[in-house]
Amino acid sequence: MSTNRRMAMNDDLIGGAVGPYELVDRLGTGGMARVYRARLPGDGQAALAIKVLPLRPTDRAAPRQRFLREAQMTARLRHPHILPVYDYGESDGKLYLVMKLVNGGTLAERIARGPLEPEEVAAILTQVAGALDYAHARGVIHRDIKPQNILFDTGGDAYLSDFGIAQPGAHTASEDTEGFTGTVAYASPEQCRGEELTPSSDLYALGVVVYEMLTGALPFQGSTPLAVMRQHLTGPVPDPRAANPALPPGVTAVLDKALAKRPSARFRSAASFSGALNRALYSHPEQPSAEGIALAASVRVPAPPSPAPDEIRFRVTRRLLAVAVLFVAIMAIVAALILTFVR
Ligand SMILES: Nc1ncnc2c1ncn2[C@@H]1O[C@H](COP(=O)(O)OP(=O)(O)OP(=O)(O)O)[C@@H](O)[C@H]1O
Ligand SMILES: [Mg+2]
């Protein structure tokens, strides 16, 4: 029996109620809360998801404030690719957040099965980029972009969820009462240094997610969180084509820019990141766009290999051979005609 199943069987909240909601079964467990399938009494289908955070009397105020902040933050955002929050509250020493139930799993589960096809990556990035630019335009920084927080419905549409540690406007990680709250694999260099986070920090985390989707692996790995942070701070971005040689060469430059150490060297918006990736995946290399040229000037792009002298010689020889064959064929036809008439 899986650990999840065993835990779910021991879960005394299943079959009970939180606020007005009936909890039907467990959908998953995160770092601070559990998520259940739920319904309102009288509603036939359990078509809601409820996140429940049990509070002990000894709990500090911080998790409670963080949870309610997530609720308020997300409830204000309305976008086709942001998971909607319908309700939130506190009941019997538990905080809860009611949201849209989606049944297509998480991006983390999808990546665990291996790298995604470029078309899938481009489609997911387009949707998530729209959601992120929308939140940024409203002064909301997500601060926890990672594959566990990108969910799918059964039609394959992506939803950005858990603006859990999001703060309106700028905020410094060192101000956070819980210390380092992000996930280190997706943490930008400025987050690793405890500096002020900006929308660009979300774009860096999105860059890590895209790298992972295309290669099936994280760009920066290490045996301790500190070792991973050191890579974010000073390590060069490993070429994604080493992990997935099928990727077109332009992808390397796009991910280099998305994962630039300096925020000012990164893409300005999620939409421009998404646009550049689409062009790298699909545009014809002989017809670079104006932005493609600008990108090539700002980041390293391997020069297209020029033909070796041997290759040039081979091409010339092939052309001469074709002319000779044509000449012999014409001569044969002329000879046949002459023979016919002489007889
Ligand atoms: N709206 C939802 N519909 C369906 N399943 C969900 C929904 N929200 C969460 N889940 C499931 O519950 C799991 C736990 O979610 P939760 O947000 O608590 O944790 P997490 O994102 O994995 O980690 P963290 O605590 O760092 O945010 C998710 O991985 C997902 O499988
Ligand atoms: Mg989550």
Features:
binds adenosine-5'-triphosphate, 12 helices, Phosphorylase Kinase, domain 1, binds magnesium ion, elongated, 343 residues, alpha+beta
Report a brief summary of the structure.
The model is unreliable at 166-179, 286-290 and 296-314 (pLDDT under 50).
Description:
It is a single chain. The relative contact order is 0.08. The protein folds into two domains: about 10-100, Phosphorylase Kinase, domain 1 (2-Layer Sandwich); about 100-170 and about 175-285, Transferase(Phosphotransferase) domain 1 (Transferase(Phosphotransferase), domain 1, Orthogonal Bundle), CATH 1.10.510. The chain has helices at about 5-10, 60-75, 105-110, 120-135, 190, 200-215, 225-235, 240-245, 250-260, 270-280, 290-300, 310-340; strands spanning about 15-20, 20-30, 35-40, 50-55, 85-90, 95-100, 140, 150, 160, 165-170, 170, 195. Strand 8 (about 150) and strand 9 form a beta hairpin. It has about 350 residues and is an alpha+beta fold. Helix 4 (about 120-135) runs antiparallel to helix 6 (about 200-215), helix 4 runs antiparallel to helix 10 and helix 9 (about 250-260) runs antiparallel to helix 10 (about 270-280). Mean pLDDT is about 80; it is low at about 165-180, about 285-290 and about 295-315. It is about 45% helix and about 15% strand. The protein is built from twelve helices and twelve strands. The strands form four sheets. The chain has a six-stranded antiparallel sheet with strand order 1-2-3-4-6-5, covered by helices on one side. Strands 7-10 form a two-stranded antiparallel sheet. The chain has a two-stranded antiparallel sheet with strand order 8-9. The protein starts with a helix and ends with a helix. It is elongated.
